Amino acid sequence: MEMSTLLFFILSVFLGGAFGAGAYYFWSGRHKLKSEPQREATVLLERIEKVFKVVMAEGYFTEIYNYQHDKNFWNLIKDKKKALVIAKAKVLVGYDFGKLRFHVEGNSKKIVIDYFPEPEVLSMDTDYKFYDIEQGWLNRFQSDDYTSILNEAKQTMNEKALQSDLPRIATNQVQLMMFQLAATMNWKIDMQLPETNKNVIEEYSSYKPVEAGIESLNRKTEE
Fold first, then answer.
1. What InterPro entries does its record include (predicted)?
2. What pLDDT, in 10s, does the model give residues 47-63?
3. Is residue 39 part of a domain?
4. In 10 A of CB 61, how many CB atoms?
């Protein structure tokens, strides 16, 4: 009888331990499935530079970029991939005064500008979204493809920004600021620029004529 009781006790302990271990692994497994992914980021400051850049104009752009790549395998299989990218960008245009060249004539309180830089895109804050992504069995998107698409879309946005009115607005704004600031201190600014540099700045400073005039509108109305 005592032997049966001892055997029953040992069996109960063994089953209880097995049940407890099983319950532990079950709940720990569920906990691992529900756990949040671990994230770790390392930020390294490479260098600090002193700059004198002034933003003079701000523009908002939306670009619809269609990408398609057709690939021919051994002249037997044609496979293509394509994607639609909608890009939004906030573009800041201004001047890098580190490129400005001038000298000061203190006796006459005059600042002589020897070279005036062109307006440039100082910053571009972009947001991209991919739509209608299609890819074949063999011709599939790789990580390099997405990087290339984003670089091309950003380059196109940069070109469109420089072709817009932002450089003209920035040029007029910076000249107004410089002349007003000099006037408040009883100084004068003399733009003695090389001919090529002068022509470029004048091109940016001048307002573009509107193509649609009143006469043309009246002529279209009569027709």
1. DUF4230 (IPR025324)
2. 888 888 999 999 999 98
3. no
4. 18
